[in-house]
Amino acid sequence: MKSKINIKAIIKLLRPKQWIKNSFVLAAIIFSGNFTKTGVFAKNIAVMLMFCIASSCVYILNDIIDVEKDRCHPKKKFRPIASGDVSVTLAVILGISLMVIVIIGTYKINPIALVIIVAYLILNILYSFKLKHIIIIDVMVITLGFVLRIECGSVVTDVSLSPWLILCTILLSLFLALNKRKSEIIELDSKSASHRKILEEYSVDLIDRMLNLVTPSILISYCLYTFSSVQSRSMMLTIPFIIYGIFRYEYLMTKNNAGGKPEDIFFKDKPFLINIVLWGLSILSIIYLTK
């Protein structure tokens, strides 16, 4: 074990690449047309930052619990705790300190938002110790985490999101979680169960059947959202971006088994990134320039 504090390893332990998931907090302010309101925008950014810190607390806890299993994994053995770059003691101190920051910081922003983030932390603590070992429940817990993110954004923005948009979030997070499980099974092959016991309960065929239900449901839900939105005719123009995004993700999953690290797809695959940017610009243009 290394005695010096390795700042680079600590940053890696926090997994900043995965903070992109917390951008779901901004869904409410963007789709409600309040993105240009400076005060509300500042609160949303602050809450998103709190979610980033809270999610890092969860990653630290997971790495502490799974340290021995990670050391047997071909890639996860290089994680800071598993490799010895960060000691368990330092990780515990860091996790507790960050949790205190989250609680105090979120309370000052919005007390109700604090309740949601505490619920997110409790949910993920239960997930780390028990729920991740229960088939289907494990991916549903991940989905609930995304719902809590957008609900937190709704609270600080003081708006209600379309039920269809919430359903899109649920289905999209299920899509990502199932593809992640599928990627782990393919990557680890016969050793998958020894690394993550829940993978013994899944199979590529079972996950494909689940995805056959979830994938078209994402598109249908998004279409229904665009049909029911105020700018329905214009919003329908964004549907092709969703179709391309789903197809591109599935292509990368099939060709490169990329579903294990969805953040890499978002940051490294140029066609996917360009599609997301164009979709985002289209949404902003339709909502804010057609008022």
Automatic annotation (TrEMBL):
Pfam families: UbiA. GO terms for molecular function: glycosyltransferase activity. Keywords: Glycosyltransferase, Membrane, Transferase, Transmembrane, Transmembrane helix. The chain crosses the membrane at residues 20-39, 45-65, 86-105, 111-127, 134-150, 162-178, 234-251, 272-290. It is found in: Membrane. It is a multi-pass membrane protein. It comes from the Bacteria. This is Decaprenyl-phosphate phosphoribosyltransferase. The lineage of its organism: Bacteria, Bacillati, Bacillota, Clostridia, Eubacteriales.
